[in-house]
Amino acid sequence: MTGEDDTVPGAGPEGGATRCGFVALIGEPNAGKSSLLNRLVGAKVSIVTHKVQTTRGRIRGVVIDGGAQIVFVDTPGLFRPRRRLDRAMVAAAWAGAVEADAVVLLVEAHRGITEGVDAILEALPETLPEGRPVALAINKIDRVPHETLLPLSAALNERRDFAATFLISATRGAGVEDLRGWLGGRMPEGPWHYPEDQVADMPLRLIAAEITREKLMLRLHQELPYELTVETESWQEREDGSVRIDQVVYVARDGHKGIVLGAKGATVKAVGTEARVEIAELIGQRAHLFIQVKVRPGWLDEPARYREIGLDYSDGG
């Protein structure tokens, strides 16, 4: 799971020409992009919580469909930005869509055409290059009566001539294989960018930090998670085959440190236990995770913090 970008020439499973391309998943916050990415890849490469604005940088998941290698880009949710971090996240989302070979717009079945979806539909024609295929994926179909889906699909297709429409449940897998197959057939011919057994274009250090951030977001108050970040400071392979991982949780205010730590350190201890178990399963070896919590009032305005989470600081200006 390294971030190597060397192309990997080769033929498809039956000796045919290979295909390789990039697909951007876009939509409102909490539309299910991370869940869909994880379902497509078959492994957890993007964090999933009930909170909105979870994904900050563009996370690449790699999928093989026959002779096609599809590199999925899980972009941050598109929303009305307020802070520098928000603006950088939205810029990253649109940049991911512009650079991709195909785009999938996710819309929540039970929410329909919200103000946010309407804004995305308005922006698509003026943002994407002409001819860029855009598929519509109506997600969370298990949450609505079946008879409501066709009218919603028709209403959305009246707004834009989508290349294809899929009714899916990212969490349960319904319709996901059809979507993957359709995308695989639309990837341009060319060599694969990644080895066949690689599922993500993210360093393990960053994936480990994202796992810890997910556990924190699930436990903390809604207003706090977006003012914290997690960084993996060191990753040391030990002689006994285990790995020692040292992480720092940066918070913006003194009062937040106590919330993250919890009474007698109970919160951060529980988070560390959950994260350690998941990291160990991911890397297939024992992990020793040590977490510190530090107050860094200006981290939201530090270019280095943006680079760490895959965003461009200048996009937030």
UniProtKB/TrEMBL annotation:
Residue ranges annotated for the Era-type G domain, each copy included: 19-189
G4: annotated segments: 139-142
Membrane topology type: Peripheral membrane protein
Entry's family note: Belongs to the TRAFAC class TrmE-Era-EngA-EngB-Septin-like GTPase superfamily. Era GTPase family.
Region (G2): 53-57
Domain KH type-2: from-to ranges: 220-297
Quaternary structure, from the entry: Monomer.
Keywords: Cell membrane, Cytoplasm, GTP-binding, Membrane, Nucleotide-binding, Ribosome biogenesis, RNA-binding, rRNA-binding
Residue ranges of the region described as G3: 74-77
Protein's UniProt name: GTPase Era
Compartments in which it is found: Cytoplasm; Cell membrane
Statement: the UniProt record of this protein carries the keyword Membrane: yes
Region described as G5: 168-170
Domain of life: Bacteria
Region annotation G1: where it falls in the sequence: 27-34
Record: residues binding GTP: 27-34, 74-78, 139-142
InterPro entries: G_ERA_dom (IPR030388), GTP-bd (IPR006073), GTPase_Era-like (IPR005662), KH_dom-like_a/b (IPR015946), KH_dom_type_2 (IPR004044), KH_sf_prok-type (IPR009019), P-loop_NTPase (IPR027417), Small_GTP-bd (IPR005225)
Primary role: An essential GTPase that binds both GDP and GTP, with rapid nucleotide exchange. Plays a role in 16S rRNA processing and 30S ribosomal subunit biogenesis and possibly also in cell cycle regulation and energy metabolism.
First-listed, main subcellular location of the protein, grouped into a coarse class: cytoplasm
